C-alpha cells in the first residue's frame, strides 16, 4: 500500500529502489514465487498442470507465452459473471479496465485489482522521488490535464472503465498523490466529470490560472494531452481572462457539478490577475514560452514523451523550453530510458511493445520504447516502423517551417486498392484553411516524404515500381479532434489517447473520417 502522507520520504524510496535493482534477479524470482503462491488456486494455472509449484524452471515449462487473444475467453467469462471465482487469479476480480483501443480500433478488457493499483502508485512514488531529487517542489500544486470517463457495469456486475478512469476514481488515488506532494489544481468534479471533456479541459486551464503562482508542475499521462491543452488555450485565453476578471464562469460550461465546484474558486472578480495574464499572453511571440509565462514557478513538465509521443516534443518545447521525466529527469525525452522495477512482474505475456535494452541501472534493464509491434507500414519487402514514419515527417516538415507552418498531427495508411499499393500520409497543417500552404510547397513535401523513408526494401521496391508513388493527403482543420472524439465515443479516455500512426483495415471508421476530411491530395514525383 502507498505510504501515508507523513511517512513519505523520497530518499528512502530511492534507497529501496537502489537495493532492489542491485538484486534484480533474486527480487524477480521472489516476486514470481509470491505471485504463483497467491494464485495457485487459479483455474488457468491449474489447467496448465502447475499444481501449486513455484519453481521458475517448472513455471516456464508449464506456462506458455501468450497474448491477450489467448486470454480473452477467460476474461470474457469473468466479465459475464462466471460462478467460478478464481479463473485467472486467486482472488475474485471486481473491476475491469479498458485499453485505449487506438491501435486495433477497439478496446481490450483487462482485469484490474488492488495489487495493480498499489503497483501503479509504486511507480508514481519512485519516479516522483527521482524528480524531486533534481527538481525539489515545496507543497506546490500540479496542473494536471487528466480526465476520468464514465464507468459502467458488465453483464456479470463488475465495474468497468478505462485504466486511468479506474485509477483516478479510486479514493486512495487522491490520498496517495497528496502524500507525494502532487495536489491537483482542479477539484474532483472537473477531473471525474463524464461530460464533454472540453468542459473539463477549459476548467483545468482556469484552475491553473487561478493558482498560477502555486503551480510547480504541469503534467498529463501523455505529451499529446499537454500540447492539445495549450493549443486549446490559444483559442480561449481571452474568455478565460474574462471569467477571472468578472468572477463568473462562462456559459460554455453546462455541467452543474462542475459549475458548483468552480463557483468555490471564482468567488469574486479579480481584475489584477486577469490583466496580468492578458498582458503576458499579448506579449508573447507565437506563444513561445507560454508555460513559464503563465506559471512562473513551474519546475518541470511531466508525462510520457517517448515513442508515439515524440512528434509532439517540438511543440511542447515551444510552449515550455525544457522537459524533465524518468529516472534521470534532466535527460532529453528522445534519450530517455526506463528502469524496470524488479518487484513488479508480468510473466509469460506479450505486451506487443518493441523495446530496446539500452543498458542497466545496477542489474535491472533500462529500456527504450521503440514501437508497437503491430504498427508497421509494409506492402512488398518494405518494413517501415512508426519511428521511420516520424523521421520522414520531420524531414518533410522542415520545408513547411520556412513558411512558418506546422503539422498539427499526422497518420498513415497502406492503400492496396491500387496496383501497385502505395503509402498514404495524412497531414493536418496549421493554416491550411487560410490557404497559407501553396500547392507547390505541398508537392515538395510529398516528394520529401517519399524520399525520406530510409528502409532499403522500400527504396528498391519504389525504384522498380513494385510500390506506387507515395500520396500526401491534407486534412481539414480539426480532423484529428474528430478522431479523438470518435475514440471517446467508444468509451475511451482522453488521458489514454494516442493518435494512431498507422491505420489498418480494423480501423475502418477512422479511415472514413480521414477520407471525408481530405481537402487536397498530392502524388510523389520522386523515383520517377
Automatic annotation (TrEMBL):
Protein species of origin: Senna tora
Superkingdom assignment: Eukaryota
GH3 C-terminal domain sequence ranges: 387-503
Domain spans labelled GH3 middle: 344-372
Protein name: Jasmonic acid-amido synthetase JAR1
GO annotation, cellular component aspect: cytoplasm
GO molecular function terms attached to this record: acid-amino acid ligase activity
Annotated family: Belongs to the IAA-amido conjugating enzyme family.
One Pfam family in the UniProt entry: GH3_C
Species classification: Eukaryota, Viridiplantae, Streptophyta, Embryophyta, Tracheophyta
Keyword list, A-Z: Ligase
